[in-house]
Each structure stands twice: as C-alpha cells, then as structure tokens.
Design goal:
The complex is a heterodimer of chains A (109) and B (878).
Chain A lengths: L7 H9 L5 E2 H11 L8 H13 L3 E4 L13 E4 L1 H24 L5
Antiparallel strand pairs in A: 1-3, 2-3
Chain B lengths: L1 H12 L2 H25 L2 H30 L6 H18 L1 H30 L10 E4 L7 H10 L3 E14 L6 E8 L3 H4 L4 E4 L14 E4 L1 H8 L9 E5 L5 E8 L13 E4 L16 E6 L5 H18 L6 H5 L3 E3 H5 L1 H35 L1 H12 L1 H37 L12 H27 L3 H7 L7 H37 L9 E7 L8 H17 L3 E7 L10 E3 L1 E2 L12 E7 L3 H5 L3 E4 L13 E6 H7 L9 E4 L4 E9 L15 E5 L7 E8 L5 H11 L5 E6 H54 L4 H34 L11 H27 L3 H6 L2
Parallel strand pairs in B: 3-8, 5-7, 15-20, 17-19
Antiparallel strand pairs in B: 1-9, 1-10, 2-3, 2-6, 2-9, 4-7, 5-8, 6-7, 11-21, 11-22, 12-21, 13-15, 14-18, 16-19, 17-20, 18-19
Classes of the chains: A mainly alpha (109), B alpha+beta (878).
C-alpha cells in the first residue's frame, strides 16, 4: 500500500533517533521533551514500537557509545539507512497532507 | 515493591516470547517512570498508566502472535493449543451475545469494584503498618488522651518497659510574621515524642531536655511545609525569634525544621511543634488532662509485660492520688499497639462498609451464576451436540469455565478501574486528607484478584458441573423437552432465594440506619440552632501579649458584635457544643459527698463571656445569667450549671447560691443560675451530663468561638467588620451557621445511611432481576405444558396461581433466610445505631414485606405470559 501510515509512536521514535543513537529511556525523554510532556510513552508502547521497527530493519541495536559493556536492559539503538529513508518518506507524506490542509483552510492547519 | 508488582503484571499479560526479549528493558523503563512519579507525587496516576500500557501492549502482542500463527498454520493438537482454540471460541461466543456479556461484566465490575474500593480504605486505615521505625514497638498508653504533665513525669520514672514515654496534643497557634496573622495547626509535645516517631530534622535540631525545663527559652520546630511556604525555605530562619503565639508564649526561637513527609498520629498536620514545659516542683496531679500518651517499648520488652506494668502504675496512682481516676478508668489500664489505636474511630464504619461491599459482590455473583446457568441450559442442545461429536465432557465444561474466566477477568478489570477512580475521588473530596491511600498495596491486589476468582468460580463452576454431568444422549432427547431440568431449576431457585435474602439484609440495614438518623434529627439539642452563626478567632500575641489584653479583646469583640447590624445577641465560648474534643474537669461541690467508689464528680466545662448563653438560646430554669459586668469582675466567679449538675450535686435544694471548687482546687465558683441541659457531647450522647458555664475572665483562651444570634439577612461581612473594628487582621475562620456545626457531627451517620441505601437499592434490583430471570426461564420451559393444559380446559387463573405459588416458595425461602441474616446484621450495626433497636420489628417487617412484594412482582410478569400462552402456538412450536 502506498499510503501505509506509520503509527505515530513509531514515527516519533524514528525522529528521536535522527540526531544520533539513544537508549530506550533516552528516546522516551527526547519525545517527551520535544512535545512539552504531552506525549509520554509507557514502557510497553515504547518497546513494542522498537521491536516492530527492529523487525522491519529500520532500527538496529548498537554498542553503547560511551563504551560500556552491553547491559541487556539498557540497549542503544540507531537508525539504519532504511530507517532514515522511512522517516524522510513519512515526513514527505505529512508535508503533502499539510499542503492540502493549508490550501483548503489557510491558517487553520 | 513496585518493580515486583510490575513484573507480575508483565508475566500475566505479555506473550512469553515478547516478554523474554523485551521484559527487562520495559521493567527498567517502568522503574525510571515510577521513581519520577514518586518525586512528583503522582503515584496513583502513573501506576495506573503503567498498568494500562502493559495491558495494551499485551493485547497488541497477543493479537500479532495469533495472526502469525494463523498464517503459519496450526500445529498438532497439544493441550495448550486446544486451550487457545477454546479461548477463541469462548471469546467469539461472548461477543455474539453482547447484552449478556455486558450485563455480566458490569454486574461483576460493580461488585468487585465496591469490594476493592472499600478494602483499600480498610487496608490504608487499619492494616497498613505505620510510617515509623519499628512500628510494632509504638504503643498508646492508658488513659489515652487523658494525660497531664504530672503523669508524663511519673510515667517516665515508673514505666521502665517503655524506653520513651511522651505526650502530645494539638493547639491552634497564630503566626504573625509579615502580612496578616494566620492561624496554623500547632503540635505540642513532650521531649522525645518526635524522636520516638523517627522524625528527622532537615535543618537544625529537634527538642532536647533543656527545652522543657521551666523558664527555658520558648522554642519551636517548624514543619517542612510551613518552612517552605511561609519562610521561603530560608535556612537563615534558624535561630531567629518569630512571633508564634499559643497559650503560654508569644515569641519563639526557631531551632529546627522537620524533614518533609513526617506525619504525626496526634496533632495530624501540625505545621509547627512546641515543647510541653514540665516543672517537677510545680505540677499538680489534678492539673488539666490535655495530652495523649504514647510510648516506645524498650528493647526486649513484651507487650503483655508493658501492659501489666501500666496496670500496676494505674493501681499505684489510684492509691497515691485518690479521686484522680475512677475505678472504671483504672480497670481499663494498659497499652495498645498504636496501629490498633489509630484506626479505632473508623474501624466500625469501615468494617460495616466492607461487609456491605461483600454483600453486593455476593448478590452480583449469585445473579451472574443464574444468568450463566439460564444461558448454559438454553444452550444445552449445542453443548450436548458437541459432547456427542466427541468433544468430551471435560472439554465441553472447559468451554463454559473459560467463558466464566473471561467474564470474571472483564469484571475484575472494570472493577479495579472503578475502585481506582473511587479512591481518587474519596481522597480528594472526603475527609480522608492527610492519609495517603496511595497505589494499591499487594494486599489490595490480592483481595481484588480473589474477588475476581470467586466471581469467576461462582459464575462458572456451578454451570460447568451441570454440563459435565450430562449424558449427551439423554440431553439430546430431552433438549427440547417440556419440563425443565429439575436439578438445574432447584439450583437456580436457591440462588434467587439467596439473592432475596441478601437484599433483605441490605434493606434492613438501610432501614435501621435511616431510623437512627431520624431519631438523631428529632433530638432536642437544648438550644435553638436556627439563626445562629458561629466563627472561630485567635488573638495574635504580637498585638495582645498578656492574658488581660486577650480578655479585653474578647469583651470588646462581644460588644462590637452585639452592636453589629442584624445581630440579636452574641457571646464567646472556648468550645462549641458538640465540637471536637471534650473538656472535663474535676469539681468539688460544697456539701456534696462523692460516692464510695472514690470517683470524683466531673463536669464538662465551658469558658464563656456574658451573652453566650443568651445567644445560644438556652432555657433558664432558675436564677439568672451573669451580665457583662461579670466579664471584668474580680473575686469569686459567678457562673451557671446545667440541670444535670444541679440535680446531681444538690439534689435536695436549690443549686443557686451554692459554690464549688474547680480548676485544680484553687478557684471557687458560685452558681447564680441553672439552665436546661444542652447536648454538649453530641446529638447521640446523653443530655443528662453535668456541665458548668464558667466566666472566661480567669483563664482567657486565645482561640475562642463566637456565637451570634442573627436576624434573617445578616451579612457575614458585617460580623467580620465588627471583629476587625476591635483588632484589625485577627484571623476569623470557619464562619458558618450552627446548623452546619451540628450537621458535621451527624455526617458519619449520614454517610453510613447513604451507603446502606445504595447497597439496598443495588441488592434489591439485582435480587428482582434474579427472580425475574429464574421465573421467566421456568415459564418459558413450561409454555408447552401450559398450552396443553389450556387446551384441555385449565383456566388461565388457575395456571397463573400455580406459577405464582412456585415462585412464592422461592420468595418465602429467601425472606425467611434473609430475616435471620438481617437480625444478625442488625446486631453488627448496634454500635452505630441511635434510638432504634437492632432487631426493630417495624424495620424487619417492612423489609420482609418489601422483598416479598418485589419478589412476587418480578415473578408475576413471566408467569402471566406463560399462563396466557395460546394453546395453538405452544403446540405448533413443537
């Protein structure tokens, strides 16, 4: 499907990782702070989405950037090139929607 | 603790493959969110959100796992996969009948929710351990809130089973530091009290023995909250002298600030603590009894040993200080664990509420069992066909049980949600502030789960037994038979009867509590509350340092109030009738011989200005009421006693002109008038209790209650303006009509009656539905029989009679059992009833009649339908 909508939580996670790898909690905090606390993902929402993104090959687990040994509970994730592409595609899709909304109801969107 | 619970939730709801891979990170994340919630104090909201998040994820992942399995094809018929299929079948079956599923889930949800809600209150108030170190060593020491300074000193000497003996009480203090003076809740405690409860200073120190010595500089320890809000959390406050006035000092040096989060069992919510001064040379044994005695048991001391020690101490006190305590009081000497003591006032209502909730849940379960039963037997054909096709009895029964489990789980989920919402509502609105009900403890979760399991069991097991025990061949031939399954019908009848019986208990309780409330409303308080307005004011020590200033203020305020527009009369008193706390003093009436038991005569004493009794509207029986000149007079006090005191102390002649010695045997009062008895202790308490109204001039209190009799349309602003015309900025609080004060005292009774009313309505409705369900099922099974009988000439009336007679047996059984249960429940309520016998025949009879009528009415409609069956229709249906 061309119009396969990316669930908001997954899109937000992709966006959170655009500026570099983060661990799960870091992603959550990034999303929360950038939405002024409005979007605060619970653990299940967070890791459910991460699981699906990893399965789709958009996210991969990477080593701790600080060089600490791998802790099974604190894993770092980075975007794969496909993930970066997916984020860009979703951004384009949204831009397109926004343009339509702007054209039909200027100033309201 | 939280992590463990969360892990349990994950184990319950997540598919194992997902949990193995992602459970660890989820737990870590949940811990981080939980820590943050604890810091911001939003524990309940976050806990709930975390659980919902886990549930949502669980549902999502199970769904994904299921779609994947379908795609990859189903494997061999292992036990677990069979279970999965049964689960899907059960889900589908339930979805197909949304009306049935919805009503069962809602019924169970209400029952489980009510139970979980009440139990979490019980848990918070009665079962949870106290937030103090080694809570089991903390004890409340006889005689409760009746300690004086001398007893603290003696207790410290004599009771070596107690490492710390301390007394505390609350006192209104006025803080006068910049801006308007404000009233704050103060705590007065002997040295050791705060340490005993594990309080830690955030700044400075707590009290030391030097602080309680006579002549020591007055000091105070601020609560963290007061320090933050009024002093901006400024460490410089330490060592400063602030204007913080109570009865015995107006300025105090701040020596410490308590760490945040400390709550005291006595003087709950105190914003500043001050030490009780103890003077070994001065304290008389009969000085006022104002402290609550607590202790911490010494290392190695056992409760029985300490208990015995306190008993011996009480005996010794009686011997050394005759008349200090009555025989009855000494007989109750001992210690109690603080935990048991704290919830005592609320214990009875809470256990009653818990009983009521259990009642509702049981009725709900019986109802659901009946619904499931009716539905299962309606599906007899389907189940028998499945059994005949080789699905096996166990397998068939498993389907029914699984449905019940799903229904129970749905009910449990709904119930927990309702309970959590209810807790939030209660803690934010009702008078339970100051106690953190917090997130549900494991005990609460266990009870909620237990209730859910019970519900699933009752709703599922009974019908399952019916299914498993069936011979498919016989069932198939009789599936459309004319006569209902006799055994099934008997079980249904018994369940309906049980529902009626439980509903009768609910109705009786509501009736008893309602009558009790009516009786309370009928009580004559001894004065006329309509048109009376009261408020409390506290004189700041910064403007009125000396006792004489306080008295002058009180007299001037009284005069100003009497001159205010819309005021008929006004006066001041230290404690309102029926207010919190008692104040009893020992008196020595002239010419009165105390009885042999050694008990000295006591009165409830009120310190009043002239005008108080007039404003209150108390009937004068004899003599006169002291006039305004008495307020500033010198010499022997001229006061008033009530009729109970006059009859008790001077039974043979007039009390007027008699004298008595009060206040530690140093102050004489002459009786100049006798007034009618006022219910000083509460509407539900005896009026015939000796009381004395003593002029305040000798002992002016900083905090007094104004009582103002007003004409309609009086403006509250005028009353405040009158006070402020005497002393601007004096805090005026709790300005409200006297009727509101009285309503406050009956609030627990009204809440309880309301609860009982809700319970009775719910149980009656459920009971009616239960009877209706059984009757309508039975009637539908008999339609054919009736059709045939009608065709053979049986009258419709006759058929209806027969049907009602059958239902009547169920109703009669329910009512009979219910009467017995209601009688027992009444006994349990006896402690909270007023003016009505627990086995009140009127209430019992009315409740029995009501339930019988409801039961028969519920049976009437289906019976009429069955009896009116058209013979042709009924026969054609075969």
């Amino acid at each position: 499907m061309a119009d396969d909508v990316l669930p908001p939580a997954e899109f937000r996670i992709l966006l959170a990782l655009l500026d570099g790898p983060k661990h799960g909690h870091g992603i959550k905090v990034d999303v929360r702070d950038r939405t002024g606390g409005r979007v605060d993902m619970g653990p299940g929402t967070l890791y459910g989405a991460i699981k699906r993104l990893v399965a789709r090959g958009w996210l991969q687990e990477v080593a701790d950037p600080a060089g600490a040994p791998r802790d099974d509970r604190r894993r770092y994730y980075a975007l794969t090139p496909e993930g970066r592409g997916a984020a860009a595609a979703e951004t384009d899709r949204m831009r397109e929607l926004l343009a339509i909304a702007e054209a039909k109801a200027p100033g309201r969107a | 603790m939280f992590t463990r619970i969360y892990r349990g939730v994950l184990r319950l709801v997540l598919p194992p493959t997902f949990r193995r891979e992602w459970g660890g990170p989820m737990e870590l994340e949940a811990r981080l969110q939980w820590d943050e919630a604890r810091r911001s104090g939003r524990r309940l909201a976050v806990a709930w959100r975390l659980v919902l998040d886990a549930l949502g994820t669980g549902l999502d992942e199970w769904r994904r796992a299921a779609t994947q399995r379908t795609i990859h094809g189903r494997g061999g018929g292992t036990m677990m996969q069979g279970l999965g299929m049964d689960l899907r079948v059960a889900l589908r079956t339930l979805r197909r009948s949304p009306g049935f599923t919805g009503s069962v889930v809602v019924t169970l949800g209400l029952g489980i929710g009510a139970l979980a809600l009440v139990f979490s209150l019980v848990d918070a108030f009665l079962l949870r351990t106290l937030p103090y170190p080694e809570p089991d060593r903390l004890v409340a020491v006889w005689p409760g809130n009746n300690w004086n300074r001398a007893m603290v000193m003696s207790g410290r000497e004599e009771l070596d089973g107690l490492a710390i003996v301390a007394g505390a009480t609350s006192e209104v203090l006025v803080l006068d530091e910049g801006g308007e003076p404000i009233e704050i809740v103060g705590g007065q405690a002997t040295v050791g009290y705060l340490d005993m409860l594990g309080a830690q200073p955030a700044e400075g120190r707590l009290f030391t023995p030097d602080d309680e010595a006579p002549g020591a500089e007055p000091v105070t320890v601020l609560s963290y909250a007061l320090w933050s809000s009024r002093f901006g959390g400024d460490p410089q406050v330490l060592g400063r002298v602030v204007s913080l006035g109570g009865e015995d000092a107006s300025r105090r040096r701040v020596v410490g600030v308590l760490a945040p989060g400390f709550t005291s069992p006595v003087a709950r919510g105190a914003e500043a603590w001050i030490p009780v001064v103890l003077d070994p040379g001065q304290e008389g044994w009969d000085s006022s009894f104002f402290l609550t005695g607590l202790g911490r048991m010494a290392e190695g001391a056992s409760l029985p040993a300490v208990d015995a020690q306190v008993e011996a101490w009480a005996e010794a006190l009686r011997a050394e200080q005759p008349g200090l305590f009555s025989d009855d009081e000494v007989a109750t000497a001992g210690v109690r664990r603080l935990r048991d003591e704290i919830g005592r006032e609320r214990r009875t209502p809470l256990w009653i509420a818990l009983g009521a909730a259990a009642l509702v849940l049981l009725v709900a379960c019986a109802n659901v069992a009946n619904l499931v039963l009716a539905r299962t037997s309606g599906r007899g054909g389907e189940l028998s066909i499945r059994a005949a096709l080789g699905s096996g009895r166990v397998r068939a029964a498993r389907g029914v049980v699984l449905e019940a489990v799903l229904l129970g789980a749905g009910g449990g989920l709904l119930g927990s949600t309702l309970a959590l919402l209810g807790i939030r509502l209660i803690t934010s609105t009702l008078a339970f502030q100051g106690l953190d009900v917090g997130p549900p403890s494991p005990r609460v979760l266990a009870v909620a789960l237990g209730a859910t399991a019970l519900a699933a069991l009752l709703a599922g097991a009974i019908p399952a037994l019916g299914v498993a025990g069936r011979d498919p061949a016989r069932r198939l031939t009789s599936a459309r038979g004319a006569v209902g399954d006799g055994r099934l019908h008997r079980v249904q009848g018994a369940l309906a009867a049980a529902q009626l019986a439980l509903a009768l208990v609910g109705v009786t309780s509501a009736g008893l509590l309602g009558r009790s409330l009516l009786a309370l409303a009928d009580v004559d308080p001894g004065f006329d509350p309509s048109g009376l307005v009261t408020f409390r004011m506290t004189v700041p020590p910064s403007t009125h340092p000396e006792a004489d200033d306080v008295l002058r203020f009180q007299v001037e305020v009284r005069d100003a109030l009497q001159g205010a527009p819309g005021v008929v009369s006004a006066g001041l008193v230290n404690r309102l009738p029926m207010g919190r706390g008692t104040s009893r003093i020992t008196v020595f009436p002239e010419g009165f011989e105390p009885p042999e038991s050694g008990e000295l005569p006591e009165v409830t004493h009120r310190l009043v200005t002239a005008g108080y009794l007039e404003a209150l509207g108390v009937r004068l029986e004899e003599g006169r009421l002291p006039g305004p000149e008495e307020d500033r007079a010198e010499g022997v006090l001229q006061g008033v006693v009530n009729r109970a005191a006059a009859e008790r102390f001077w039974p043979d002649g007039s009390a007027v002109g008699q004298r008595f010695l009060g206040r530690g045997g140093v102050v004489w009062m002459e009786v100049v008038g006798v007034v009618d008895d006022v219910r000083e202790l509460g509407l539900g308490r005896a009026a015939e209790d000796p009381a004395a109204y003593i002029p305040v001039r000798d002992w002016p209190w900083r905090t007094m209650q104004a009582v103002v009799r007003t004409r309609p349309g009086v403006d509250a602003a005028d009353l405040k303006a009158a006070v402020w015309s005497v002393a601007p900025g004096v805090p005026v609080n709790d300005l409200r009509p006297m009727t509101a004060v009285i309503d406050d005292t009956t609030r627990p009774a009204r809440l309880l009656a309301l609860l009982a009313l809700v319970v009775s309505v719910v149980t009656v409705v459920l009971g009616a539905v239960g009877v209706y369900g059984v009757a309508s099922y039975a009637a539908s099974r008999r339609r054919r029989e009736y059709g045939v009988r009608a065709a053979l000439g049986a009258g419709r009336r006759r058929l209806l009679q027969g049907e009602l007679l059958r239902a009547g047996r169920t109703v009669a059984l329910g009512v009979a059992v219910g009467l017995g249960a209601a009688w027992a429940a009444g006994k349990g309520l006896a402690a909270v009833l007023f003016g009505v016998h627990p086995g009140d025949p009127v209430v019992l009879a009315a409740a029995a009649l009501l339930l019988a009528a409801v039961g028969l009415a519920a049976a009437w409609f289906p019976a009429r339908r069955a009896a009116g069956a058209d013979p042709v229709d009924a026969l054609r249906a075969e």
